[in-house]
Amino acid sequence: MTKAQINVTAGRLLSLEGRVAMVTGGASGIGRGISLRLAEMGAAVAVLDKNAEGAGAVAASIEQQGGRSIAVRCDVTSSSDCTRATQQTLAEFGRIDILCNNAGVVVRKDVVELQEEEWDLVLDVTLKGVYQLSRAVIPHFAQQNSGVIVNTGSGWSLKAGPKAAAYCAAKAGVLNLTRAMAIDYGKDNIRVNCVCPGDVDTPMLASECVQLGEARDAFMKTAADRPLRRVGTPDDVADAVLFLVSDMAKWITGTCLVVDGGGLA
Fold first, then answer.
1. Residue in 93, 156, 167, 219 annotated catalytic
2. How many whole angstroms separate alpha carbon 223 and alpha carbon 96?
3. 131 noted as active-site residue
4. Tell me, what's the pLDDT at 1?
């Protein structure tokens, strides 16, 4: 096989031309990175976020690059919002092929420090949000006998960390919910996987530094203490998501892909 043939094959397997993606938490951080990468590879993208202005900016950026995108204000804890966002995406693009459940909230407290409303917030956004939007979208996947879901977990889906009780519980739940959905909907040709990032340079990571009251330089130095000696970027995670939603991963479901620079090694 020639180099040109290899490039054509790789491009075909990674191409998302003609597909439609929904990305939650798409206004910033990892969600923004995923939205931009899927659009770059040809997908039309519905950018979902409670921050309508931020979602609009990402959608505008995609369209300026020649892609197709809409911004949808969506609170993933609201079943009515999730239903409306699904209907709006279908009305605009006619189908949905990819769902990236990425929205999440972190509160850096242990169980004793954590207030009940903080526990509820983290679990509702980070775990219940996956259930809510999946519940709205899966019937459409089943009807067309195809669909891909990628849920954003965490290294803490697999190994707990300090002062993050609710977040660790929620992200562990995201991973096992991924497995359960993969079992339930494989018969409908729906693949469900989970990407588990380590520390990524996003507004959420910056908020953790503030919550813990640590100096930023020291905090980021600790976060980079892993075999590849750096903190991740949204693009690092977006590339992993692209692989999982593409035809390169067409026989992969019910698993997690750890993207953490070796932090769990």
1. 167
2. 36
3. no
4. 63
